[in-house]
Amino acid sequence: MSTGLRERKKERTRAAIRRAARSIAASHGWEAATVERIAAEAEVSPSTVVRYFPVREDIVLTDDADDRLEALLRARPAGEDPLESLRAVLTEAVGTALEADPEEIRLRARLMAGTPAVRARLTETTAETGRRLARALADRTGRAPDDLEVRVFTAAVLGALREATLYWAERGLTEDLMALMHRTVDTLKAGPALPARP
């Protein structure tokens, strides 16, 4: 089997596992989406599910987007404000995902808000995304990849956008997620507006 054919087969298997897990979780909740049930729905063996996704929660949280995010960040204009660079890259990624499959994004947000195991794993996967983006930002700003300020800044932006997604889910997914994301970045830039004094 050629490398290209092998890779396409792997991607089809990975996609089938994701579809199965999301279908079960949407209909019956995350606890019902056991490895065995996902395997049966995807028509693969349980060992195949585990081989592709050693951590079950990654089936609904990961989408192989980190390479693309890093490439997009590296392609931003050299003199651009780092916060605006991250705003552009992350909102583009979310907007593209919403356009491609809004129900998947809504399910992921509901699981993040309502399932402690998914939320805990999200913290770990967000940290890995943060490390990738921090490396790109360090290169753009002439700092070391493990520079404290770069790490804190990147983690703060990703953490804030995660909170925006949870806020969206906790309020029934009725608000405009893209508007919430821009509002979140604006808050990071300016801080929360204080109420007017009487």
From TrEMBL:
Keywords: DNA-binding, Transcription, Transcription regulation
Domain HTH tetR-type: 11-71
DNA-binding span(s): 34-53
Keyword Transferase: no
Family matches, as InterPro entries: Homeodomain-like_sf, HTH-type_TetR-like_transc_reg, HTH_TetR, MftR_C
Gene3D superfamilies assigned: Homeodomain-like (1.10.10.60), Tetracycline Repressor, domain 2 (1.10.357.10)
Pfam families linked to this entry: TetR_C_14, TetR_N
Name of the protein in its database record: TetR family transcriptional regulator
